[in-house]
Design brief:
The protein is an all-alpha fold and 73 residues long. The chain contains three helices and no strands. The longest helix has 24 residues. The chain is elongated, with a radius of gyration of 15 Å.
């Protein structure tokens, strides 16, 4: 389950960083890599929300490198 959790966390961080790019630069990296339209038009409010999601993803990056706490039995 530890491996699945790490994979899920990596995907969440990648998604959040992509939303940060959308929020700040109106550029969708995932769409660009997979053959979609890379430029998005968004309202100011949606750009703020996308940017906040992206910043949250940046804050999660250190949790990838934390060691799992030992379980007392």
């Amino acid at each position: 389950m530890e491996t699945l959790s790490r994979v899920a966390l990596v995907l969440v961080i990648i998604g959040a960083l992509n939303w940060l790019l959308v929020g700040l630069f109106s550029y969708d990296l995932v769409a660009a890599l997979l053959g979609g339209d890379a430029v998005r038009e968004s309202s100011i409010l949606s750009k703020v929300i996308y940017s906040l999601v992206g910043l949250s993803g940046i804050l999660l990056i250190p949790s990838l490198f934390r060691e799992k706490a030992p379980v007392d039995k």
